[in-house]
Amino acid sequence: MNGERVLIVGGGGREHALAWRLRQSKSVEAVWVAPGNGGTWPDNVAADAMDVEGLLVLAKARGATLTVVGPEAPLGAGIVDRFTDAGMRCFGPVAAAARLETSKAFAKAFMARHGIATARYEVFKDPEAARDFVCRAPWPVVIKASGLAAGKGVLLPQSTQEAVEAIDELMVARRFGSAADEVVVEERLEGEEVSLLALCDGKVAVALVPARDHKRALDGDLGPNTGGMGAFAPTPALDAQAIEAVRKTVLQPVVDGMAAEGSPYIGVLYAGLMLTADGPKVLEFNCRFGDPETQVVLPLLEGDLAALFGACIDGTLKPDDVVCKPGAAATVVMASGGYPGAYTKGKVIQGIDKANAIEGVQVFEAGTRRDAQGTRVTSGGRVLAVTGIGNNLQQALTKAYQGVGAISFEGAMWRRDIGGGLGGQS
Ligand code: AMP
Ligand code: GLY
């Protein structure tokens, strides 16, 4: 058999990690990333991740045998449906199944239909009714735009007044446009957060190692929410027995429910969980790999990743095919000064090769590009995810921070307390 020719759609740290891991697959002959970044260069192809027709033309022109979709927006736009109709193999859920992420109102109703534990909630289309509800809600509330809002559509008000303001921001000022035509008001949960990702083939869900993401910008979980400032895996918060329990009560019921509703779930199912006093509850589903969770989950996954994705598409995934390595991985995101607010781009980045030369360090690039000379410069908010791999969490964190210490660019900021600060300072 000829090798797999893989097209990866997206351009962040997650896609660099996918490219890095897929290149290690014995079955893979070529990897391209559209549009990619400075880390996946020179295998980048200029393309817009939302241009499904353009990507289809590209995949055919390159003779791609497998397309792997990183971000949620093209999945929501039906890239898998379109590729499959055209006879192309594309890893990810069809648009109807991706609604678990693209419509929080759908996800909540789906969980209610299938008995999956989640926060209590109400859905509103009318700001008046929503305002009225938050003023007399029987529980502290979280307010969410139902549609895609680039990870920014969740508001955590501290008072009734702030809750009313949040409703107005979403439904009257329409900060996220039509993404907040419907708003989910849900019960605020307390506990530790865990990201549990699973590979799904339409019939079974097989969990990967549980990860912990650090979403706030600043040390001590202060500052605004971001896409994620660092992560580690496995998190001790979920032991093997607890993983199996979540698989049975959350992940597998999603796959069974989607199959029963006529949209078999194929791809990665990401459950964002809160470990509450009453057991794990779902905060959200994502229909794709997490960023930066991928940068710690993939280094711990054994085997041929392209073959695993192929088994998902073919409906032949076996739980025993998914083997996680012992040890731990941690990643520290280096961001542009000002992120998640305004920041400047085009800063020269030094030391990536030096960091990669340290044993147990792998730098995944996110907001980077190469200039005309091939020099890496910053081009986004989250610039790098510096991953350390070790025998245990402490070692992995130490490695990650050693990597960070080798790298510099003007205005760089990163959290010093990923993994609870076990990695020491740099
Ligand atoms: P989401 O995009 O739905 O994961 O929300 C972003 C972040 O908001 C989550 O990672 C949590 O930290 C927080 N969050 C979301 N829903 C809730 C909830 N029901 N209770 C407490 N925190 C929440
Ligand atoms: N790290 C959170 C996400 O990928 O949505």
Q: What do these coordinates show?
A:
The protein has 426 residues and is α+β, with helices and mostly antiparallel strands. The protein has four domains: 89 residues, Rossmann fold, CATH 3.40.50.20; 56 residues, ATP-grasp fold, A domain (Dna Ligase, domain 1, 2-Layer Sandwich); 132 residues, D-amino Acid Aminotransferase, Chain A, domain 1 (2-Layer Sandwich); 94 residues, Phosphoribosylglycinamide synthetase, C-terminal domain (Glycinamide Ribonucleotide Synthetase, Chain A, domain 4), CATH 3.90.600.10. It has a five-stranded antiparallel beta sheet. A four-stranded parallel beta sheet has the order 2-1-3-4. It has a four-stranded antiparallel beta sheet with strand order 5-8-6-7, with helices on both faces. Helix 7 runs antiparallel to helix 8. It is globular, with a radius of gyration of 21 Å. The structure holds adenosine monophosphate (AMP) and glycine. The site of adenosine monophosphate has 13 residues, from strand 8 and strand 16. The site of glycine has 7 residues, from loops.
